[in-house]
Write a structure and sequence with these properties.
- This protein is of the alpha/beta class and 388 residues long.
- It contains 15 helices and 13 strands.
- It has an 8-stranded mixed beta sheet with strand order 5-4-3-2-1-6-8-7, sandwiched between helices. A 5-stranded mixed beta sheet has the order 11-10-9-12-13, with helices on both faces.
- Strand 1 and strand 2 (13-19) form a beta hairpin.
- Helix 6 packs across helix 15 and helix 11 (289-313) packs across helix 13 (330-337).
- The radius of gyration is 21 Å and the shape is globular.
């Protein structure tokens, strides 16, 4: 069964074609800089890798290019020959708490949720609309970043602000990276040979965008990202947690507009705000004091969230690192875990070698590094919808 997964960004399309239920990747296409002067297309198929630069003016043309490549290499004739198409949708609000077969009602609701994710939902929706036009009879499934966190208790997802703002305006914690946290939970369950519903774990999705999640008996009970993906951990260009009054100060005392403050907190803060770089690989290669400070700040914030979530969970089976930084930046993992309380001990050699299990034998909690695969998770969720 061939299931395509489309992760449509504002100026990019990430496409993967899976043979399910095996989970084998038949083809991978990444189109970047859509709508710009020159677009980059990366195509991987078996042992072949092709990189092309051309003009891709919009998402419709991008999907046409993907179909053309799949056809040219004899992978599939067109989208109409697929068994299903799964779409990543960032914000599902309070409406969607699981993967959902896409129909007109679902499209309308995703549209209505655009104010809660103005950078993401419009692009996700564009991918859906173009795919439905190309393959109107193929089942299409929306998998929401927020869905995994839907069952957080009320005391976790409510903010301590006027309750009417929640009732009338849906201002609450939603959480993101749900597909990644859910996938890592499944993989941790397999690794520890313990049912997911019996697991208490802390998952750390660390990349340019980062979030922590406290999972109790297989259910997300708290997560660091909130109403938007700005809250929580220090990230590549995002501030994470700050005193809200800083926003008022920047507006009143510095004369900055709402848009200028938004740009500072989302695009000029975090690592790039402290040291001018947001790529951890290049930061690690720099001896600059601000670079060291930026990583120390990032690791400290991770450590604080681990401690808070350990307090919430009580017993913890494992702390799991994933995402580009979590999977590869051994120094960041070491800094976040050094001198931890509660008997947590990292094995420095295993961590240096990027092994799956990086905890020492005498550690009270298993420390794991598990590669995430959000696209495979979306394919699995799409398959599950088809079987219902």
């Amino acid at each position: 069964m061939k299931i395509a997964v489309i992760n449509s960004g504002s100026s990019s399309i990430k496409f993967q074609l899976f043979e399910m239920p095996r989970g084998e990747v038949l083809a991978y296409v990444l189109i970047e800089k859509i709508g710009e002067f020159i677009s980059d297309t990366t195509f991987k198929y078996q042992d072949k890798k092709l990189t092309v630069t051309s003009v891709v003016k919009d998402h419709h043309e991008g999907l046409e290019k993907i179909i053309s490549l799949l056809n040219e290499y004899g992978i599939v004739k067109d989208f109409a020959s697929l068994d299903a198409i799964g779409h990543r949708v960032v914000h599902g609000g309070e409406e969607f708490h699981s993967a959902t077969l896409i129909n007109e009602h679902v499209i309308q609701k995703i549209q209505e949720l655009i104010p809660l994710a103005p950078l993401h939902n419009p692009a996700n929706l564009e991918g859906i609309l173009v795919s439905r036009k190309k393959a109107p009879l193929v089942p299409q499934v929306a998998v929401f970043d927020t869905a995994f966190h839907f069952h957080m208790p009320k005391e976790a997802y409510l903010y301590a602000i006027d309750y009417e703002l929640y009732e009338k305006n849906n201002i609450r914690r939603y959480g993101f990276h749900g597909s990644s946290h859910a996938y890592v939970l499944e993989e941790t369950s397999k690794y520890l040979k313990k049912d997911a519903s019996a697991l208490n774990i802390i998952t750390l999705h660390l990349g340019n965008g980062s979030s922590a999640c406290a999972i109790k008996n297989g259910i997300s009970i708290d997560t660091s990202m909130g109403f938007t993906p700005l809250e929580g951990l220090m990230m590549g260009t995002r501030s994470g947690d700050i005193d809200p009054s800083i926003i008022f100060y920047m507006q009143k005392e510095l004369g900055l507009s709402v848009d200028e403050v938004d740009t500072i907190l989302n695009k000029k803060s975090g690592l790039i705000g402290i040291c001018g770089k947001n790529d951890v690989r290049s930061i690690l290669e720099t001896e600059d004091e601000k670079a060291k400070l930026a990583l120390t700040m990032m690791a400290r914030r991770i450590k604080k969230y681990i401690g808070a979530y350990m307090a919430l969970l009580g017993h913890v089976d494992a702390i799991v690192f994933t995402g580009g930084i979590g999977e590869n930046a051994r120094d960041v993992r070491a800094m976040a875990l050094e001198e931890m309380a509660c008997g947590i001990v990292i094995d420095k050699e295993k961590n240096r070698e990027n092994e799956t299990l990086i905890s020492a034998k005498n550690s009270s909690v298993k420390l794991l590094v598990i590669k995430t695969d959000e696209e495979l998770y979306i394919a699995r969720e799409s398959l599950s919808i088809l079987h219902h």
